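Please decode residue identities from the backbone states below.
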């Protein structure tokens, strides 16, 4: 019991773990994407707009310095004072040797110093430069361009912007996304836990039911609510268990019926032998009579075992390869065999048969079917009775009917007479040497070859059995 619950916990845990982990992995991937991609895109957009505005500010300054032949502190300062306010954090103007001629920063002004900002160095070799970074909650953008006079670089303009406004917007967006991510993560984890627990609970119930049935509790059924696949598996499992229970019950009934059938002649044999042994000076005539009785009980035993073996063979699903068998010669052979018995019972047997009634089966099977039906018809028809056989072909079927004018079958028993060991009148059947297996052998044999069998009472009295086999259309001739 301990191992079962341990295994159950293991399965439960591992499934729950797998479900949980997959949900968490998926949501983690989505959240990572949500937290990076839009931010990167918006950062990039800001960079681009900064590049445009800063570069256009720089080019405005460059063009205002454009008319000068040489840049000096004086003429640059003069030009810059008349230039309109750009709103930039810092503007530097250098000459061609990168010496600072103008600086908007008042404290720590770089005027008169040489500067080696990368952007300025680049501008002095003739390139426009722009860099932008986002750190510590601010966008820092730098741009510079060369100042030309008649195609000659005479200096460079450098602009620097420190922007916290747009950075604050981006930060706000970032923290909103983060908050949203936390809420989504908590919701998804909670949802996945509830879902996976429900799922593993259902699987656990199913597993439990499978184990119980495996241990022999065939009446156990599982109840799984819902309409999902697991509930469907539960339903399928229940119907499988139904079948298993029925098969098990019929197997038990068969074994107990078979033992009971074998017990009766064995008990008779024991009784007869005891009587012979215990009777002193038994006269030879009585002894012979007893021994004859023992012989007939032994015959009965061998008939039962033969029938049982035949049924077991039919159950085993091993079919002999079929051949095309003409039914008429087999029917005539059975009639010859039964002639004496019928005569003894004063029963007239007649037949009507069409030519070319061939079926795919084995000769033995056809023989068995006709013999059992005819034997029953003679057995259950009193002296002076009539048995009529009819063999015909109709719509791709070969139809054999065996009709008698005997006792008939009570209507309520008709559906059960093909069951194993089922007899309408046990004493009468035993007396007539029946085993109660004949019709079930016939029915199984016919069905194995795709045929059907039915029984009915005739309006004029007596029973009629009708066998239908699929007609053979050009097979292997037996
Ligand atoms: P049995 O060995 O008892 O004849 P079967 O399986 O051949 O067993 O038949 C089952 C029961 O069906 C018989 O016990 C009998 O009651 C009934 N039965 C079969 N054939 C006929 C028939 N031709 N007329 C009346 N009853 C029949």
């Amino acid at each position: 019991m301990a191992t079962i619950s341990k295994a159950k916990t293991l399965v439960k845990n591992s499934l729950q773990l797998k479900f949980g982990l997959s949900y968490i992995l998926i949501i983690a991937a989505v959240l990572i994407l949500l937290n990076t991609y839009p931010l990167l895109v918006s950062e990039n957009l800001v960079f681009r707009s900064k590049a445009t505005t800063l570069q256009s500010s720089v080019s405005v300054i460059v063009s205002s310095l454009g008319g000068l032949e040489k840049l000096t502190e004086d003429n640059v300062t003069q030009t810059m004072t008349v230039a309109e306010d750009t709103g930039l954090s810092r503007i530097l103007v250098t000459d061609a040797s990168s010496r600072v001629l103008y600086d908007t920063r008042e404290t720590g002004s770089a005027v008169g110093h040489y500067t080696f900002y990368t952007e300025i160095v680049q501008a002095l070799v003739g390139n426009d430069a722009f860099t932008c970074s986002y750190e510590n909650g601010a966008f820092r953008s730098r741009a510079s361009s060369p100042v030309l006079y008649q195609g000659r670089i005479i200096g460079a303009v450098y602009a620097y912007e420190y922007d916290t406004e747009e950075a604050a917007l981006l930060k706000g967006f970032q923290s909103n996304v983060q908050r949203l991510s936390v809420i989504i993560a908590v919701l998804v984890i909670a949802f996945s836990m509830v879902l996976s627990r429900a799922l593993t609970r259902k699987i656990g119930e199913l597993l439990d039911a499978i184990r119980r049935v495996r241990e022999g509790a065939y009446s156990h059924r599982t109840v799984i609510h819902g309409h999902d696949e697991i509930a469907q598996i539960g339903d399928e499992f229940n119907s499988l268990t139904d079948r298993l229970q029925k098969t098990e019950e019929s197997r038990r009934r068969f074994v107990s019926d078979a033992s009971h059938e074998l017990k009766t002649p064995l008990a008779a044999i024991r009784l007869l032998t005891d009587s012979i042994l215990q009777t002193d000076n038994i006269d030879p005539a009585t002894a012979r009579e007893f021994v004859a009785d023992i012989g007939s009980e032994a015959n009965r035993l061998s008939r039962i075992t033969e029938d049982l073996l035949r049924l077991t063979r039919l159950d085993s699903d091993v079919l002999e390869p079929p051949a095309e068998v003409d039914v008429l010669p087999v029917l005539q052979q059975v009639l010859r065999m039964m002639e004496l018995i019928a005569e003894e019972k004063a029963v007239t047997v007649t037949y009507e048969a069409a030519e070319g009634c061939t079926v795919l089966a084995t000769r033995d099977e056809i023989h068995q079917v006709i013999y059992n039906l005819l034997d029953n018809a003679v057995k259950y028809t009193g002296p002076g009775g009539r048995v009529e056989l009819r063999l015909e072909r109709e719509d791709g079927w070969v139809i054999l009917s065996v009709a008698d004018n005997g006792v008939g079958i009570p209507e309520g028993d008709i559906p059960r007479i093909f069951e194993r060991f089922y007899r309408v009148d046990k004493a009468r059947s035993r007396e007539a040497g029946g085993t109660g297996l004949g019709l079930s052998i016939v029915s199984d044999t016919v069905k194995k070859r795709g045929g059907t069998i039915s029984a009915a009472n005739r309006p004029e009295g007596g029973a009629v059995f009708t066998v239908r086999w699929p007609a053979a259309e050009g097979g292997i001739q037996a």
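Observation: The longest strand covers residues 138-149.
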